[in-house]
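Deliverable D2.4 — example input (structure tokens):
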């Protein structure tokens, strides 16, 4: 039993007397570098152009369904001087008012029933659309 006590005491003294061997000071890790992503980057000066294209495509996709109150696409069902009615998909109809500054593209075109048009403008409180630009879609 004495030999066990002496061995335990010697182990404790040995641990206290020797410097810590188990852990050494870690070497500094290198600073992280940017890993290349799989997607190409868009230059900053092109961002506004891309955003405009995306908004235009989204507007064209939703115009026919009457989601955008400022944009309508459909078939002319009625046209008389300053009044226009357009049938959109899902048999929805939208009344449109023209004014002296309304632009009809191509210029000089007279609208007729059955033509497909794209109308942009601003909504009136009564739910009609005040047309700023009407474009004949071929």
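Example output (designed residues):
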């Amino acid at each position: 039993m004495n030999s066990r006590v002496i061995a335990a005491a010697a182990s404790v003294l040995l641990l206290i007397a020797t410097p810590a061997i188990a852990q050494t000071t870690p070497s500094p890790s290198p600073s992280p570098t940017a890993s290349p992503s799989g997607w190409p980057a868009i230059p900053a000066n092109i961002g506004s152009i891309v955003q405009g294209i995306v908004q235009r495509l989204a507007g064209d996709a939703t115009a026919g369904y009457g989601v955008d109150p400022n944009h309508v696409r459909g078939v002319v069902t009625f046209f008389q001087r300053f009044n226009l009615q357009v049938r959109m998909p899902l048999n929805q109809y939208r009344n449109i008012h023209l004014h002296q500054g309304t632009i009809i593209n191509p210029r000089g075109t007279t609208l007729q029933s059955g033509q497909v048009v794209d109308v942009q403008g601003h909504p009136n409180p009564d739910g009609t659309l005040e047309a700023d630009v009407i474009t004949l879609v071929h």
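The helical segments are 2-17, 47-63.
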